[in-house]
Amino acid sequence: MRHAVKGLVNSGRLEFILGGWCMNDEATTHYNAIIDQHALGFEFLRQNFGECGRPRVAWQIDPFGHSREQASLFAQMGFDGLFFGRADYEDIDQRKKTKTMEMMWKGSPKNLGSKADLFSGVLFNGYSPPPGFCFDINCNDDPIMDDDRLHDYNVQQKITQFIRYAQLQASHYATNNIIMTMGSDFNYQNAHTWFKNMDKLIKYANQRQVNGSKVNLFYSTPSCYLQSLNNASKTWTTKQDDFFPYAHRPHSFWTGYFTSRPTLKGYVRQTNNFLQVCKQLDGLAELKDTDNSTFHLNILREALGVAQHHDAVSGTEKQAVAYDYAERLANGVMECQKVVNDALKKLYKKGSTPAPNQLFCNLLNISVCHMTENSKQFTLTVYNPLARSVISWIRLPVVGTNYTIRGPKGENLLSQIIQVSADTKRIPERKGSLAKNELVFRADLPPLGFNTYFISMTGFKERHSTKSFKMKSNSDLVMKNEHVSLTFDGPTGALKQITNLDSRVTVQVKQELMYYIGVSGSSKSSALNAQPSGAYIFRPNETVPLSFHADLKKTTVIKEGALVQEVYQKFSPWATQVIRLYDGAQHAEFEWTVGPIPVSDMIGKEVISRFSTDLATKGVVYTDANGREILQRNSQFYYEKTIFNRIFVTKMSVIDLGMYGV
């Protein structure tokens, strides 16, 4: 069988398309994770099928919208074209009318130019067969019956139906060649029924040519179809933006997954960072096959590769599947930690003495690390995977209140002790943690290098302790360092102003946690007003978010120290945040803790962090595309009304890295 399959590949009768480890999401993925998962798939095909197994056509038929950066990456990978199945229903209607379902997509018009151009096409029926022509075991369509002795003989009826559909599809495309997808989710469980019926379809449809039919059916591949379009020598329309947001019908914009399962999204991004660290240290230490580094690395590569799937990092999977993705990532991280240890033993050894075994703090996001909590003395190694020097603020969970820290040159470093917040302590996974405090200090890291810090608990009184106090009634609170100043409103306690002290530019900024009430309904109903809000689709009940009506000035706590200042705000018992400003930083951090969201009232709540500014952007903002290039977007919300007079938001932009307005 293996040789037969290779023979089909070598003869061009069996073609691999896309070729990545998965069909990745395009909204919430980072560009180097996209590259890594495709490189993993391409290498598998090369090793098993040679050069003939190399995919030439990208096939993104199911992701829920499409990113311009994805097209740019595909072009740079050497793909000849891209086909996808989902685009906004209004966009498709317009393209059908103008015969522009296929186009030249300019993936980087201002930077890479033609190197990032990619021919792209929207498939006519998603990735499904024409209506009435599904032939798998779970399909309900009639098979093609060509024995006229039987009462259910239907071949002429079926062929007429198929030809009419082909003519309809052809009327919306620019050449006399069209591609029909014959299959769908979970299809070809019984491939025999598919090919038996398609053989009949081809035979009897082509027999109609003697009577003047111009429809010619044959088995083909996406590459052959793309070649036929190239041979048509047409001038194609161009596109320079992306295909977001996607809606398949009114009131059904697929923007919910931009933020669904944010913890999994964060874990995927963090794990991607660690994979880059592992690959770098593997190369820098020149680890050999005897170290099994490739084996260990591939476990994380594969786990992270499948986590880029459009039903993985998107957050649209069921909870049990989300747990499985997280478990696989955790297993991959543990395998990659072996690579880091092996690399550091070579890079870090003194003479013939190898470096000690390194332990890892995997739960710092909830202020847990058993090593730092249970040791009075320990060393900390911090690695910088970037090709430039960076400043990193380290926060370690500890039990003590007094510590000394010596840097890599033996110098004493300033530190600060901050209590672990009550909201962090209530996280269930912290059960058993001894840490009541966090030890904060600044690490100055060399490019592509690491520093080691020596930390000891002492009995001396901490000189750089943290002072805590509440807001004074009706008096504005100012938190600032040498670069940034944040002003909190006295009467309300909310952030109201940010000043860049270097440029002396002040912006009025109000920030608050709020929530929308999600529309309840049934996703199984075809009625437009029945579409619920959920993991895929964001559909609020009203256009204006609801306030928690929190009295922030009474609940806000300020913590000041030599290295970091923090403002703690409580919007509800299950929604809090910390606004943090480090010494010398040119930005402030906003860290929120939300959940468990109460649902006992059977009301779905979509929590947001809203920033309101006085910037005169005229609705134009700039956001990244997959963490790479910046795109201009129109952030003005537009609305639709149903006959029930329900108004809802339909326009949103995905942000992977950052956003700004001018």
SSE arrangement:
Elements: H1 2-10, H2 31-49, E1 57-60, H3 68-77, E2 81-84, H4 89-98, E3 102-106, E4 117-122, H5 155-170, H6 191-207, H7 222-231, E5 238-239, H8 262-284, H9 293-307, H10 319-347, H11 370-373, E6 377-384, E7 390-398, E8 403-406, E9 412-413, E10 416-419, H12 422-425, E11 437-445, E12 449-457, E13 467-470, E14 477-480, E15 484-488, E16 495-500, E17 505-517, E18 546-547, H13 552-555, E19 557-560, E20 564-572, E21 575-582, E22 589-594, E23 605-613, E24 620-624, E25 630-634, E26 639-641, E27 647-649, E28 659-660
Parallel strand pairs: 1-2, 2-4, 3-5
Antiparallel strand pairs: 3-4, 6-12, 7-11, 8-9, 8-12, 10-11, 13-19, 14-15, 15-16, 16-17, 17-18, 17-23, 19-20, 20-21, 21-22, 24-25, 24-28, 26-27
Helix pairs in contact: 2-9, 8-9, 8-10, 9-10
CATH H level of the largest domain: which superfamily?
Glycoside hydrolase 38, N terminal domain
Total of domains: 4
Largest sheet: 6 strands, antiparallel
Compute the gyration radius: what is it? 29 Å
Principal-axis shape: globular
Please identify the structural class as seen in this structure. alpha+beta
- The CATH top-level class label of the largest domain: Alpha Beta
Could you name the CATH topology of the largest domain?
7-stranded beta/alpha barrel
- Quickly give the CATH architecture of the largest domain: Alpha-Beta Barrel
Cα(first) to Cα(last) distance is: 61 Å
Number of helices: 13
Helical residues, percent: 25-40%
Beta-strand portion reads 15-25%
What's the total number of strands?
28
Q: Could you name the ranges where pLDDT drops below 50 across 5 or more consecutive residues?
A: 637-650
Average the pLDDT over all residues and give the rounded result: 92
